[in-house]
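ok so I'm stuck.
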Amino acid sequence: MNRLASLAAAGAGAYLAYRWLAPGYDYRGKHAVVTGGCRGLGLVLARELAARGARLSLCARDPAEVAAAAEELGALAVECDVTDQQRVKEFLAVARQRNGPVDVLVNNAGVIAVGPLDEQRLEDFEQSLRTHLWAALYTALDVIPEMSARRTGRIVNIASFGGKVAVPHLLAYSVGKFALVGLSDGLRVELARRGVTVTTVCPGLMRTGSHRQAAFKGRHEEEYRWFALGNALPGLSMSAESAARQILRGVALGDAEIVLGLPAQLAVLARAVAPGLVSALAAAADRFILPEPGGVGPRAVKGADSRGRTPDLLTAHIDRASERNNETRPGVALPPPRPSPASR
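replied:
not stuck anymore, here's the structure
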């Protein structure tokens, strides 16, 4: 038994040494494409990539965010709706023309909609799938041939802890992120023999400033309160800068999956070991803690307009993150949902 414990300790030590000492992938001189790269986590990742010497091509839907990111980083930044495959092709063609073949693709673009199931509509789920699944597939399919031909490349899919454990009042969001996790896992398996490495990233709560840009339904001020305070609590959330550094380190080492933050890691482990218990706890939170339906109903209200009576002092930390990470701009309105066949 003692010998077994010694071997286990030696193995753990060797693994940790490898994690911290291995050179991994060198971003210097590489062409990195980041979707949704002009605010929030995407912008912080772009900053970290620039600091490592990468050539950047960024895209976002909002022209003001695009202009601000281009000015700050001196990078190519293009207005692009990544749910439109033709626009994606055009963006990547411009990116290659400016910065050469794509070496690193970071699928980061996302939307966050918060509210109870009663206030969600079919279009909310479709929008989540278009943004989190289809957009990532469009970009991946565009870069895979060139990466495969050169037998090198990194594809990074920014999913979420909500893509591993369903979170109440984030159901449409979780559906899109669960789909992205499945796509990312499958791409890793099928692209490994071509020399292309795919990493799935599942962050927990982060202080990116996204509470101001998220959309809230139902009792939107109450929904905003729990969402914003969860992102602001020390120990429960992590800084966007720390998250970005861990992501790029894991991608450099070729990790299959990166779950960020101890609370998220524990929740994912608990879900794997005791799914019934985790579901029961989430159901209890939904019943006894989270707001009831009502308020503005299915109408989406931006976080910037949902603060209500939430004290500024409690969100000061993440409000500063909003300012640092370009989340305070008015931004474009949420795209109008495309009518589904059932609603036509």
